[in-house]
Write a structure and sequence with these properties.
By secondary structure, the chain is of the alpha/beta class. It contains 13 helices and 20 strands. α1 runs parallel beside α2, α10 packs antiparallel against α11 and α11 runs antiparallel to α12. The longest helix is centred in the first third of the chain and has 20 residues. The protein is globular and about 90 Å long. The chain binds manganese (II) ion. Manganese (II) ion binds next to loops.
Length: about 450
């Protein structure tokens, strides 16, 4: 007998600040559900981070329920675990009403064995009626805190269960970690129960193994090494600038399995909702003005029509400040030329006028502050105020601003006193200011 299931993770519905991009994420979700129905899958695995946080907006909940309902109406169960984003330590997660409504079965069912000292935790296997597949999984917590749960897991007890088993996880496997995830902690494979058929992974937003994305089918049989049976489909739709730039689109997996031969075939289904065109501008040794011209030239030369443009500007400007490369101006320019949406990233853009100030790890906060103020004051250029005076003024202002509101002081008085203090330190006559208001 052959069965088929979908493996989905990291939908992050509602992750974007821009509704236009959230909308694309919702479309990806809808397409995924439609494909599951067309392919007539036996069940769907949801490996965490369905929502971007544990308390998503009503609109997001509503549209996800409408989609999950299409699965339920067709008797396709959803088995899931919570991810680092939609898990809540107090169990106040929006996944809960989904479970109550029968749209989602939580396969992270801990059972505690009081007689066990070191490994008291077991996860109950839940059997799918139609296929007989047994499922269990470990939900994530923030900052890989689930590590402590894995450490208590009674692996032999879980391994002792017979049948075709699928384990769901929302944790990166250390052995599969790529350089892109250097700062993300991974757990070694020895944390996982050994003899499962398939390990449905979540948390990695990039597909692992990479070759799945390029259309390769992954074939697994009972002798395949555990490491290769851990699959991460990656996010359903990119959730941030880096992902748009790096992977452009997300997707999910459909797995076909032969129950007798105990073989599986994994295929990736890309979800290309909108074309993405990453643009990189090297601003090194160029003036802010020149960079702006270069960006506009790119917009004219490239076909940006109806595309999402992640625009990265990096390097050290020879003249001008990063702020002079006006994001509003660039955005308007691209949208006028027909781009669907543009995101601008200037994190690695700096200026010679304000070069990085080196600070040592041994420096105190006060020392760092002092150094920053000193170096910026040295770059000031006022006719009537010396650099030393600028430095002194900044220190005075910071000191005064650090004073909290006095108990007997009203808010109005506090604000007025602060304004007077500014006048004093900056040597401004109050009358001058009042006159200039007219
Ligand atoms: Mn995620």
């Amino acid at each position: 007998m052959k069965i088929k299931f979908a493996h989905v993770s990291d939908c992050h519905l509602g992750a974007w600040r821009r509704e236009s991009l959230n909308e694309l994420g919702y479309q990806a979700f809808e397409q995924m559900i439609s494909t599951c129905l067309e392919e007539n899958v036996d069940f769907v695995l949801m490996c965490g981070d369905l929502y971007d946080n544990s308390n998503p907006k009503v609109d997001v909940v509503d549209l996800s329920i409408k989609q999950l309902r299409r699965l339920r109406d067709n008797d396709i169960p959803v088995y899931g675990i919570m991810g680092s984003h939609d898990f809540s330590p107090s169990n106040r997660t929006m996944i809960r009403p989904l479970i109550s409504a029968g749209f989602y079965t939580n396969v992270c069912q801990p059972e505690w064995d009081e007689n066990e000292q070191k490994y008291p935790l077991r996860l109950r296997w839940i059997q799918d009626d139609k296929t007989g597949i047994k499922l269990a999984g470990m939900r994530a917590r923030k900052n890989v805190l689930e590590k402590a749960d894995y450490e208590m897991l009674n692996l032999p007890a879980m391994e002792g269960e017979s049948g075709n088993k699928i384990f769901l996880l929302h944790t990166l496997l250390a052995e599969l970690k790529e350089s892109d995830y250097e700062e993300v902690e991974g757990l070694p494979r020895s944390f996982l129960p050994n003899n499962c058929w398939y390990y449905a992974g979540g948390h990695a937003h990039k597909t692992i193994p990479d070759k799945l994305r390029f259309g390769e089918t992954i074939k697994l049989n009972p002798s395949t090494d555990l490491k290769e049976r851990v699959i991460y489909p990656g996010c359903l739709f990119p959730t941030n600038f880096w992902e748009l730039e790096k992977i452009q689109h997300g997707g999910f997996c459909i797995v076909e399995a032969d129950l007798e031969k105990r073989t599986l075939e994994v295929k990736f289904h890309p979800l290309k909702i909108k074309d993405v065109l990453p643009i990189f501008i090297d601003a090194s040794n160029l003036s802010a003005q020149k960079v702006l011209e270069l960006i506009k030239k790119e917009a004219k030369q490239k076909n940006i029509e109806d595309k999402i443009i992640p625009l990265r500007i990096a390097g050290t400007l020879s003249a001008g400040k990063p702020l002079e490369i006006d994001s509003m101006e660039i955005t308007e320019f691209f949208l006028e030329k027909g781009a669907f949406e543009i995101l601008i990233n200037k994190i690695h853009l700096s200026s010679k006028e304000y070069e990085q100030i080196s600070i040592g790890p041994q420096m105190t906060i006060e020392q760092i502050e002092g150094r920053l103020i000193h170096e910026h004051a040295q770059k000031s250029n006022f006719k009537e105020i010396t650099k030393e005076k600028v430095e002194k003024i900044i220190h005075q202002l910071l000191k005064e601003l650090g004073d909290p509101m006095k108990e007997e002081e009203t808010k109005k008085d506090y604000v007025q006193n602060a304004i007077n203090m500014f006048y004093n330190i900056l040597g401004i006559q109050k009358e001058d200011m009042e006159e200039s208001k007219i």
